[in-house]
Design a protein that fits this description.
132 residues; alpha/beta; 5-stranded mixed β-sheet; 5 helices; 5 strands; globular
């Protein structure tokens, strides 16, 4: 999902939101490309999910194309978006059971090391996030 806002002076800003997406598609990339700011899910660390308490059928759904993005997939998406102009990222929809905010942040930040002027924030799964 993306929204573009045009100011009266003709400038515009584009915001993107992508959660509960399961996989990265061409449509998603097209919609979010050129967004100034995005919120993308970094739902789980794969190893934590596999070792965690969820039943097998739920783990399988989460890992499927109809589930949630892992930290690694979020990192790939963030890198692609940074290559296409995105400067501000918020990682959201983190699982309390299958992820840690510092783990998600480190994974995505590592994919963004070649880009300057990038901001990256992580939404806590159980507290309000700072204003970005």
């Amino acid at each position: 999902y993306s929204v573009e806002h045009r100011s009266t002076d003709g400038s515009s800003e584009k915001f993107g939101l992508a959660t509960d997406i399961g996989c990265i598609t061409d449509t998603l990339l097209s919609e979010l490309s050129g967004a100034d700011s995005v919120v993308i899910e970094a739902n789980h660390d794969v190893e934590m999910l596999l070792a965690g308490p969820y039943p097998y059928h739920l783990k399988r759904r989460i890992l499927s194309d109809f589930g949630h993005l892992s930290n690694e997939h979020s990192a790939k998406l963030a890198e692609y978006l940074a290559e296409h102009g995105t400067k501000h990222f918020v990682l959201g929809h983190l699982s309390k059971e299958n992820n840690y905010p510092p783990t998600a942040e480190a994974t995505v930040r590592a994919a963004l090391t070649d880009f300057s002027d990038i901001t990256l924030a992580v939404a806590s799964p159980d507290m309000p996030t700072r204003i970005v």
